[in-house]
Design goal:
The protein is built from 2 helices and 12 strands. It has helices at about 20-40, 115-120, and strands at about 45-55, 60-70, 75-80, 85, 90-95, 100-105, 125-135, 140-150, 155-160, 170-175, 180-190, 205-210. Strand 10 and strand 11 form a beta hairpin.
Length: about 210
């Protein structure tokens, strides 16, 4: 199982709360609106992250690295073992150790996971419910439970949103393959990320597998 292969998938922007009582719904809607407002004004972002993945077999793996995003649909994820890049049209998954790059078309199926639209915004293709409050590191966070509106790769998810600045601090995603938890650190909004981060030219000695 690839450590961060789930990160190649995509969801979109914001939703309304359904199936909860009026007072609780209003509180959750306010959280969502403030999170949406926070991210609608930015053009790019950078953050370090840690990730824990548990497959359906029960085997666990972990990774850490740096993530870059740029509107719209551009992201780059760097770990010690893998780099995943998309410019919104083409996606590259590069393994320096294997000396291999897999090239594919960027896919947006509306019911899967993408860092620039799940870690940095709020997904619209999910029903949402305020599920309490927890700490992520030193940050006090609201916990929002998400359920997909239609069948797809994602079965359920949770998002932890900082109560002070409404930045998403943590995401847990449960899929058919297992579960992944992403924790963001050192988030920098409008960091001036160069567009060159979202293109990739394979080195001469690398095997190229083109799936397009």
């Amino acid at each position: 199982m690839k450590k961060i292969s789930i990160l190649k998938y995509v969801v979109i922007a914001l939703t309304l709360i359904v199936g909860i009582d009026k007072t609780y719904s209003q509180t959750a809607q306010e959280i969502i609106k403030k999170t949406q407002d926070k991210y609608e004004s930015i053009s790019d972002a950078k953050a370090t992250f840690s990730q824990s993945v548990k497959g359906s077999s029960g085997k666990s793996q972990s990774a850490s690295g740096t993530i870059y995003i740029k509107k719209t649909n551009k992201y780059r994820i760097e770990t010690s073992g893998q780099i995943i890049i998309t410019d919104g049209t083409t996606s590259w998954t590069y393994s320096p150790k294997k000396k291999q790059v897999v090239i594919d078309n960027y896919k947006d199926d509306g019911s899967s996971f993408s860092p620039n639209k799940f870690l940095f915004t709020y997904p619209e293709n999910f029903y949402s419910d305020l599920d309490g409050e927890e700490k992520v590191g030193s940050a006090d966070c609201y916990v929002l439970k998400l359920s997909p509106r239609s069948k797809g790769n994602i079965k359920s998810a949770k998002i932890w949103i900082d109560k002070n600045d409404y930045i998403i601090k943590k995401v847990n995603v449960n899929t058919k393959e297992g579960s992944s938890t992403y924790t963001l650190k050192d988030v920098s909004l409008d960091a001036g990320v160069s567009s060159s981060k979202f293109t990739f030219s394979p080195p001469a000695d690398v095997e190229v597998i083109d799936m397009r």
